[in-house]
Structure formats: C-alpha cells, structure tokens
C-alpha cells in the first residue's frame, strides 16, 4: 500500500486566493500574497488516488485564521482530489461557504523572484555606516544572511531580483512574503551603497543611505535622501516638521506638494514603478496605490 502519491505532491494553484504545496505528509497553504496561512500534517488513501478515485485529504489542522481570542474564524471545510483537480471548501461561519478549484502547476509560489544570494552575499558582508551621521554610530551589519540595524530590526534575508526587473537588487526577508524588516522597507543594493526607508508611526522617513565607512564622503547620495519626512496619513504639505533622528539628513521644511501623476506612479514625487508596484515609494517613501 502506497502512503503518498506523486500525483498529489507538488504545487497547486487556484489563481488568486490560495496556493498549496504538498510534500508527502506535509501541506503548506499560502494566501494570495504568498504568505503561509497553514502548515499541517495530512493523510489520505494514496492507492485510491493513484487509481483515479475521488480521494479526501485529511488534515491534522484545518484552521486558516483565528480571532483575537483564539477562536476559529476561517478553515478548510474539506479538501478533495478528483479528476486531477483539488476542491477546496472554504468555511467562514458568518458567511456562505465558498469552493475553490485548484490545478497542479509546474512552478513554485515565487516563480517571479530570482534569488541571487550566491552573487551578492560576499560583497554584502560586514558593516555599512549611515550617511549623514557624523559620529558613525548608526550602522547596518550583515553577517552571513543575517541583517541587523540597531533597535529597528533585521533578521534573515535573501538577495533577490524580480524577473521583470533583473537589474534591481533587493534584500528581502527570508520567507519572501514580507516587504519590510520590522520597521523599514526592502533594502536596495547599489554598486557602492545600500538604500532603504523607515516607517515611524504613520511617517515615512527619507531614503536612508548606508555605505562603507571609507566611502561615506565620496558617494553620490540620491536626492531622496535629502527630502523631508512624508506623512502616509495626512495630506501632502500638512505633515508636521520632525527633528533629525539620524535617518539621512532630515530637514524641517514642508513635505513636497502633490501633483497630478499617472495612477501607477507615486502621487507625491512621480516615481514610476512599472508593473511591480511596491507598498512604499522607494524615492520618497510615500504609500503607493496598488
């Protein structure tokens, strides 16, 4: 008697809502943003599945989300293989159940991302000092694939590019689904610097620039590092001035006034992201439309 089936093992995609990966006794369920919403052990009649018979996948845990008090909010009501399709019954007690149909796919959940660790990790190792801090105390440190930046955050990361834009190189949290490191957005790798922005409450700080200590006074600093903080909640021009926090050269002048830009562009500075719209503008830090 077979315990697992290669007909089931692999990746299954519904299109927008869910993405499933089967690896023998383990099931990983991801949401539309590719973040993991469930990992659980499974069992099923592999012999029946191999014969093409309708097969129910039994889940040890079926809860997709919980309330703040820990009660089940949504769950997989039933998961069935039949005729080379997976039927996913989505159960939400206060709404009508939904049925999603998934088909096996030949690519993983991150087919649009190219991991470039081997190319860049050696170059990134060590200390990167923040431009605009004369005392040299603010620095970003990379050791192996671990990133740390004072009290702001950090953690394990991958060096990536998107298939659509291979020249843009970013440091992204290791699970590839987050777009920030506990406070600041993706770090972009330039030939002689690392660039990022920081969120403080509802305030997006100007671009921060980190470079090797010996290059701090010789790098060509992007204009975005010299701009004033931008409120992501208030109308442009109404953001209160903020005193320097060591994030680049913070000024107390008003935020830039909003202009008319195409919808895909940042509505504050006009940055055009192309097809892949980030959560925050890499030029001025404002919240982008998605």
Percentage of residues in strands: 35-45%
**Uncertain ranges:** 235-258
Shape: elongated
Tally of structural domains: 2
Measured distance between first and last alpha carbons? 49 Å
Q: Can you count the helices? A: 2
Order of helices and strands: EEEEHEEEEEEEHEEEEEEEEEEEEE
Helix content: under 10%
Number of DSSP E strands: 24
What is the radius of gyration computed over CA atoms, rounded to a whole number of angstroms?
23 Å
Which structural class best describes the helix and strand composition?
Answer: mainly beta
Major sheet summary line: 10 strands, antiparallel
- What is the mean pLDDT? 82
Structural account:
With 290 residues, the chain is mostly beta strands. The protein folds into two domains: 10-105, no CATH class; 113-227. The chain is built from two helices and 24 strands. The chain has helices at residues 46-50, 117-124; strands at 10-13, 19-23, 26-30, 36-43, 55-56, 58-59, 63-66, 72-82, 85-91, 98-105, 113-115, 126-130, 139-143, 146-149, 153-162, 165-173, 180-181, 184-185, 187-189, 194-196, 199-200, 203-204, 208-211, 230-231. Strands 1, 2, 3, 4, 5, 6, 7, 8, 9 and 10 form a ten-stranded antiparallel beta sheet that branches. The longest helix is centred in the middle third of the chain and has 8 residues, at 117-124. It is elongated and about 70 Å long. Mean pLDDT is 82; it is low at 235-258.
